[in-house]
Amino acid sequence: MQVGRRLTEDTVWYAVIASWTASLILTVPSFVAIKFDETRKACTGPFDFHTQEYLSYMVIIFTVSGILPFLILFFCYFQIIRGLYFTRTICSETTGSRGSLKSKKAITKLLLSITTSFYVCYFSFGVALLYFKRKPKEEIAEKGEKYETFLKPFLFLLFFHSALNPILYVLQSSNFRQGFKQICCGKRNDVIQVTEASTAIPQKSQLQMRSKAVN
């Protein structure tokens, strides 16, 4: 990627402001007009699930917050993989070494896991919405509650993706995996003993060197 296209500390604020602005534009209309329905004992609004307006609204949100981010992620990840294996501008200091190959494998695995989770969690919700969008308006009004119940697992996946991303990033850390394994297996005492033994060896060597110097 060219240097002029990269985000820096001075330009990253433009991306942050654009993301927050798009989020506000998409969510504020539904938030302002929401109300409590005494009959259904639930919150409803102008984009209620029982109407075609809701499905149109959700399709717009899915397009802006789903398809566009996917295109951006695809472009960025493609540039990373291109720099790893083709132009060799990433991890190029030790090209061909075992450490370099291991780093490239870890990065590629991370990118594939994040992309796969995005596909499964986000696009399944979008496909379900597009399916309901094709239903007649009368059928949506009549079976709205049934369709809403059917949509809940897909809605859960939509929010679960946000919680899954940090876990995927952390699991790629060998230090985290080793520490988590030690906590679960109860090997903390063994680690402390190994650490104490490893620190005692240099101290013993220093004492031997000092005794030789005195002699």
From TrEMBL:
Gene3D superfamilies documented for this protein: Rhodopsin 7-helix transmembrane proteins
Subcellular location: Membrane
One GO MF term attached to the UniProt entry: G protein-coupled peptide receptor activity
Domain of life: Eukaryota
Topological category with respect to the lipid bilayer: Multi-pass membrane protein
Main location: membrane
Record keywords: G-protein coupled receptor, Membrane, Receptor, Transducer, Transmembrane, Transmembrane helix
TM region(s), chain numbering: 12-34, 54-78, 110-132, 152-171
The keyword Amino-acid biosynthesis is assigned to this record: no
The protein, known as: G-protein coupled receptors family 1 profile domain-containing protein
Family annotation (PANTHER family): G-PROTEIN COUPLED RECEPTOR, PYROKININ-1 RECEPTOR
G-protein coupled receptors family 1 profile domain: residues covered: 1-169
Listed GO CC annotations: plasma membrane
Record-linked InterPro entries: GPCR_Rhodpsn, GPCR_Rhodpsn_7TM
Gene Ontology process terms (BP): neuropeptide signaling pathway
